[in-house]
Amino acid sequence: MNPDLDALHPYPFEKLAALKAGVTPPEGLSHIPLTIGEPQHAPYAAALEALHAHQGEFVRYPATAGTPELRRAIAAWASRRFALKALDDDHQVLPVNGTREAIFAFVQAALDRTRPARVAMPNPFYQIYEGATLLAGGTPLYLDCRPETGFRPDLDAVPAETWRDVQLVFLCSPGNPTGAVTPLADFARLIALADEFDFLIASDECYSELYLDEMAPPPGLLQACAELGRHDYRRCLVFHSLSKRSNLPGLRSGFVAGDAKLIAPFKRYRTYHGCAMSLPVQHAAIAAWHDEAHVCVNREAYRAKFAAVTEILAPVMDFPAPEAGFYLWPAVPGGDDEAFTRALYAEQHVSVLPGRYMGRDGVDGVNPGAGRLRLALVAEADATAEAARRLRRFVERRA
Questions:
Q1: Which residues contact 145 (CB under 8 A, 6 or more apart)?
Q2: What is the per-residue pLDDT for 364?
Q3: How far apart are the C-alpha atoms of 301 and 314, rounded to whole Å?
Q4: What is the pLDDT of residues 315-332, one digit of tens each?
Q5: DSSP for residue 159
Q6: Residue 124's pLDDT is what?
Q7: Which residues contact 143 (CB under 8 A, 6 or more apart)?
Q8: DSSP codes joined into one string, 298-356
Q9: C-alpha distances out from residue 214 to 238, 256, 257, 338, 396, Å
């Protein structure tokens, strides 16, 4: 087997299972998980109807590039959402089976193993960035996201000699787990660094449609390119998904868009990799990308949950004001996120994820996730509020 497999860390939920092993929670309390970022709201019904209506097309092999109709729907949505000049749906858009597999695959296709291959990523981070890097023969470069930088990577903290070895930079905006939104100025700063040091930028924007201020949608990397007049989106790719936007995580449908000179070889890689999207799923995706009304309803449901949960927890826990996504990132009273997580499960039957499981030791030898929790507010409103009340009681009893 590939020896690089031995470099992979256990996935956060494996660590969580080990942490909770042997603990017996109260039988009288139902279990409320706030761990996995799997949307529990109703999926977009018209997408499911389209999937059913076209199920006969499972007998056909799909093309790697997807159908022209799907690419046009994606290009039209992205152009509206991010104020772009019309994306070239033939050369700047590629449908993919969700952002997770596309991110992993892109790293394998992008890294040049004949020279130093550092991949920069926010810290804490979505674990696929690191795993993909290690299995492609690269070296992770962790960019700490701390309160003093607004929980965004500090690009200016990286010296020039380090940037010279970087081949790829990951951004995640809105951030998982912090919820921080990357402003256009930060995108522009990173684009300038990419030009100077010749690296690629991959922006994971799968939470972009879950934001709390309806008048302030999070900007994106291609939007920053367009404002700079870079309509070829040179060196830049974005990754989007229907999982969070349309509550369709099991559909495994998303897209990559940006620099045509990156899309073309990535499509060639994917042709050999064998990961074309089935035709019924493409029809479902077309329906979802064409409709915004259900997305507005989805955002409103998350806003209501954030309002309820933050009101309950703000008196007893400190957390950054959420901007977007569906996570809270509170500091743990007392600082020990693992002990807190285990005791909370034992006493209140609520599962949360220790923040340290999302990060690695940074430049100062400290894991920026340690001492925090990731709370995924994905369950229905009543269950989420009940979990917050139990969490508050737990904190107050320990005070």
A1: 122, 123, 124, 151, 152, 153, 175, 178, 180, 368
A2: 85
A3: 20
A4: 999 999 889 999 999 999
A5: -
A6: 97
A7: 120, 121, 122, 123, 153, 154, 155, 157, 158
A8: HHHHHHHHHHHHHHHHTTT---PPP-BSSEE-PBPTTS-HHHHHHHHHHHH-EE-EEGG
A9: 22, 25, 24, 35, 34
Q: Outline where the chain has alpha helix (H).
A: 12-20, 45-53, 68-82, 99-110, 127-135, 160-163, 184-197, 221-227, 242-245, 260-273, 279-290, 293-313, 337-348, 381-398
Which H/E stretch holds residue 119? strand 118-123
**How far apart are the C-alpha atoms of 21 and 207, rounded to whole Å?**
31
Q: What is the pLDDT of residue 363?
A: 81
How far is it, in rounded angstroms, from Cα 320 to Cα 228? 30
Torsion angle of C-alpha atoms 226, 232, 233, 236, degrees rounded to 10: 180
DSSP letter for 89, please.
T
Contact 34, 345 (CB under 8 A): no
Cα separation of 119 and 339, whole Å?
Answer: 32
Q: Which amino acid is at 340?
A: F
Which of 101, 85, 93 lies closest to 67, judged by CA?
Answer: 93
Q: Taking all residues of the chain, what is their mean pLDDT, rounded to a whole number? A: 97
Token pair for 192: 């300038």
Residue whose C-alpha is closest to residue 322's, from 302, 338, 341, 340: 302
Quote the pLDDT of residue 374: 98
Please enumerate in sequence order all residues whose Cβ is within 8 A of that of 357, keeping only pairs 6 or more positions apart, or say none: 12, 15, 16, 369
Indicate the pTM of the whole model: 0.97
Q: How far does CA 97 lie from the centroid of its chain?
A: 15
Task: Tell me how far apart the alpha carbons of residues 387 and 289 are, in angstroms, rounded to a whole number.
Answer: 33
CA 142 to each of CA 217, 259, 279: distance values in angstroms, whole numbers, following the listed order:
27, 25, 38
3-state secondary structure of 141: strand
What is the mean pLDDT of the segment spanning 8-22?
Answer: 97
Q: Distance between CA atoms of 50 and 215, rounded to whole angstroms? A: 31
- Tell me the two tokens of residue 391: 């969490």
Q: How far is CA 368 from CA 148, 153, 335, 364, in A?
A: 12, 11, 12, 10
